[in-house]
Amino acid sequence: MHNKTSGRTVPLSIGLPVYNGSKYLGAAIESLLAQTFSDFELIICDNASTDGTWDVCQEYVRRDPRIRAFREERNTGAVRNHNRVVELSTGKYFKWAAHDDLYDPRFLECCVARLEADPAAVLAFSRARFIDPDGRPLHEYRHPLDFSVKDRGALFLQYVLSSHVMVEDYGVIRMSVLRKTPLLGNFVWSDMVLFGELALWGSFVEVPEVLFFRREHPERAMVANKDAKALAAWNDPRRAGERVAPTWRIIAEHMASLRRAPLPWEQRLQLAVGVMRRANYCRERLAAELFSYLWPSRPRMG
After folding, report:
1. Please, are residues 245 and 137 in contact by the beta-carbon 8 Å criterion?
2. Fewest 10 Å CB contacts: which of 86, 120, 123, 211?
3. What does the pLDDT read at residue 298?
4. Neighbours of 231 (CB within 10 A)
């Protein structure tokens, strides 16, 4: 483990969890170090990589005092590593960063400015463009959710009732709110649940410029892990081979988010009805998951 601290609270902490990411890690770090908003700490947690990732981390720690790097002795899984970088952070704002994505130099500046200007906002992020493994543009991503809504319950229900490619999870989050949540849960697609819960605490702001570049490549987790079981093992290697029921878990976790949220009971009840509406919509999937969970070796009839 390498640890440098300055003894002060920084405006922004960037947490970069990584496992076997040496191929793209240097470019991702350079993209962050080139930001016009430069008053941040960059915390890298290497999850016991078996390639040259740790060598890359140490090289950048030597080059820039804003960087702290930590290395796990064993692979603790993606969820634990993502939460670890939050626990090590000291900033007023927090941002997760992936080892394979890139940013326009103004990304942090624009996102932090939006949060500073709007105390009711808990998240700021930009529009995104997908790029190929070599960094060439593929297409601009148009987010399906409506972030102009100011009603917290309405934004929460959008997360409950839809599924989409997450790009907002790499935005800038108000740390005081993030710490009121359980962070990422040890279950499949827990990022959807976490950001649904964040929506119950305030508004989300989308900067109307393409400042985030999401790299698509075969090793990306959602591509390399083909099903819920594989994703569960990626989240936590101890769960390899376990039976999973992700839809049941997501419904239950959305309900748990409502219990923690600062809402009057009438609104909680109204939103709980919305969660049950999602459960009714997914009833066939819920039935299939229950059957597979209880009788994993029996073929389903019909």
Report:
1. no
2. 120
3. 55
4. 20
Could you name the CATH architecture of 101-244?
Answer: Alpha-Beta Complex (3.90)
From-to residues of CATH 3.90.550.10 in the chain? 1-99, 101-244
Q: Distance of CA 52 to CAs 18, 55, 71, 257, Å?
A: 11, 5, 12, 39
CB 209 within 8 A of CB 110: yes
Statement: 1-99 belongs to CATH 3.90.550.10: yes
Integer angstrom CA distances of residue 21 from 17, 25, 241: 10, 6, 24
Q: H-type helices in the chain, by residue range? A: 22-33, 53-63, 78-87, 107-117, 152-161, 175-178, 190-199, 221-224, 228-235, 246-260, 265-281, 283-294
How many other C-beta atoms can be found within 10 angstroms of the C-beta atom of residue 71?
16
* Contacts of range 136-143, beta carbons closer than 8 Å, 24 or more positions apart: 138/216, 140/210, 141/165, 141/167, 141/214, 143/167, 143/168, 143/206
- Which residues of the chain fall below pLDDT 50? 1-6, 299-302
What residue type is 227 in one-letter code? Answer: D
8 A C-beta contact, residue 89 and residue 15: yes
Q: For the segment 254-275, what is each residue's pLDDT rounded down to a tens digit?
A: 999 999 999 999 999 999 999 9
